[in-house]
Amino acid sequence: MNHLSILFVTSEMAPWVKTGGLGDVAAALPAALRRARHDVRVLIPAYPALLQAFPDARPVAELPALAPALPPARLLAAGLPLLLLDCPEFFARAGNPYLDAHGHDQADNAIRFGLLSRVAALLGQPGSPLDWRPDVVHLNDWQSALAPAWLHYEGGAASVVTVHNIAFQGNFAADHLTALGLPEHAWRFDGVEYHGQLSFLKAGLQLATLISTVSPTYAQEIQDEAFGYGLAPLLRHRAGALRGILNGVDSTLWNPAADPALAVPYAANRLAAKRENKRALQQEMGLDFAADRPLFGIISRLTEQKGLDLVLTLGEGITKLPAQLAILGSGDKLMEAGFRDLATRFPGQIAVRLGFDEALAHRIEAGADCFLMPSRFEPCGLNQMYSLRYGTPPIVRATGGLADTVIDVSEATLADKTANGFVIAEATPHALWLALERATRCWHDRKLWQRIQQNGMRRDFSWEHAAHDYVTLYRDAIAARH
Ligand code: ADP
Ligand code: GLC
Q1: Cβ contacts of residue 429 below 8 Å, gap of 6+?
Q2: d(C-alpha 448, C-alpha 451), whole Å
Q3: What gap in Å lies between CA 22 and CA 17, rounded to an integer?
Q4: pLDDT score recorded for residue 80
Q5: 71/94 Cα distance (integer angstroms)
Q6: Are residues 228 and 311 located together in one domain of the fold?
Q7: What element of type H or E holds 84?
Q8: Helix, strand, coil distribution of the chain in percent, nearest 5
Q9: 332 lies in which domain range?
Q10: Rounded Cα distance, 482 and 477, in Å
């Protein structure tokens, strides 16, 4: 099999720039493709954190102003290999790649990520300034999803758009069409126009050669009005071009037997040591040393999507189960205040850390007994998979990737050794409460709990499977383009 040249385009990449799961995917998937001997280059804005991490990055191309609103820029080549899109006036900003210091979208996101999309397309076109030409350009989320528009109208490589979250679409005022240098005739309902706006994601879903999302269930769900955020009709129309490929877990980063962030390493056949991590976590977060009750963990962006308002409602009840709760998250200010308030009311039983803390995230996965992720929708979800690997059975809602990875405990699933967590059908406090009670009862049965833990720990979530499916997707896109 000949090897492919792939341009992977992303707006974040762990460990340097990460706001959520896309950062993890952008690090792990290109690496897995490289292990399969494909030539993958990652195009990403040259954020300060990346320039610092790669001080030897060297200029490989000067880009002229590609459209009225787009300033000249440079491409730097670095490690891995990366292509850093260097445009200081757009990307030399500290902190979150999308938001300003007040948590609002940066005012010029349309042209910042318009530039990323435009350059991504250019690198797949005959006019590319590089002597390297990709067979396929792989765009991720709205920030690069406009690229297929140029590849479609002007010609160029095959393109694939992956939706990591359809709730974020990158919809902007109509005058961006000319500002970004798109042709007039792209302004059509089957082009880049979407309810009178220029939509990056709509454009990508309409014009990419093939499209994918990050789990098979979410690929079905987004064709339904309830999950499609307005794009369901388009996705139904393109159903034949849409696939669901489940994300993997980077087992070099998420492995309880070799995780430098943990107090004590452990494995499926050495689960006793997990208890020491619980004690260390209780200490770190200021929770009472209670061995007689389960500790529930949460690591999350605090948004409506994640269903954590249900946990807020049940906070007091959780302490009476009795159980403890450890939360790491940031986001919605009201939700942050709600969790802070719970921690104040129930000291020693509920602990909250507001902020982003990678190492603590690992220690919560290891130290908690059970993980909570009652998302209203979840394209894939990585934390439930990390939880399964860490012997921390998750409680999830049956949606998207959660439905594809977590198998509810029942007599049948215990018998066939697939039971690995607790699944609720509805995002209601009552449904979550019943699951919390059920999980607590199971936890008190040590032998049963260990079986559930081991079922989860033994499941193979390696990226190799996903990488294989992406290669098939790329080959199909290349064939379709010709
Ligand atoms: P999403 O991408 O929707 O946020 P995922 O479950 O796919 O959800 O991925 C979230 C990723 O971000 C995980 O790696 C998780 O550990 C991490 N994460 C989320 N919030 C925090 C936080 N406050 N501190 C550290 N890591 C976090
Ligand atoms: C998004 C989704 C999440 C998914 C991640 C990586 O942020 O919300 O479910 O795991 O992207 O694909």
Answers
A1: 310, 313, 314
A2: 5
A3: 10
A4: 83
A5: 20
A6: no
A7: strand 82-86
A8: 45, 20, 35
A9: 271-458
A10: 9
For residue range 347-381, list pLDDT tens digits in order. Answer: 999 999 999 999 999 999 999 999 999 999 999 99
222 with 288, same domain: the answer is no
Whose tokens are 């979150």? That residue is: 96
- Whether 238 and 203 map to the same domain: the answer is yes
Of 379, 388, 208, the residue nearest 305 (C-alpha)? 379
Ligand 2 proximity of 164 Cβ (cutoff 6 Å) = yes
Residue 146: name the closest of 91, 198, 74, 87 by CA: 198
431 band by pLDDT with thresholds 50, 70 and 90: very high
The verdict on 239 and 286 lying in the same domain is: no
Same-domain check for residues 296 and 178:
no
Q: How many domains does the chain have?
A: 2
The position carrying tokens 């098979």 is 216
Q: Which pLDDT value is given to residue 101?
A: 84
15 lines ligand 1 (CB under 6 A): no
Q: Are 47 and 96 in contact (CB under 8 A)?
A: no
Q: What is the pLDDT of residue 241?
A: 98
Taking the C-alpha atoms of residue 96 and residue 80, their distance in angstroms, rounded to an integer, is: 23
* C-beta of 380 in contact with ligand 2 (< 6 A): yes
CA of 444 from ligand 2 middle (Å) equals 32
Q: Which atom of ligand 1 is nearest to the CA of 354?
A: 23
Helices (H), 286-357: 308-320, 333-345
pLDDT at 1 over 80: no
Tell me how far the alpha carbon of residue 94 lies from the centroid of ligand 1, in angstroms.
Answer: 20
CA of 192 to the centre of ligand 1 (A): 31
Average pLDDT, the chain: 97
Query: Cβ contacts of residue 109 below 8 Å, gap of 6+?
Result: 98, 170, 172
Residue 152 lies in a domain: yes
Residue 147, SS3?
A: helix
Tokens of 51: 């320039």
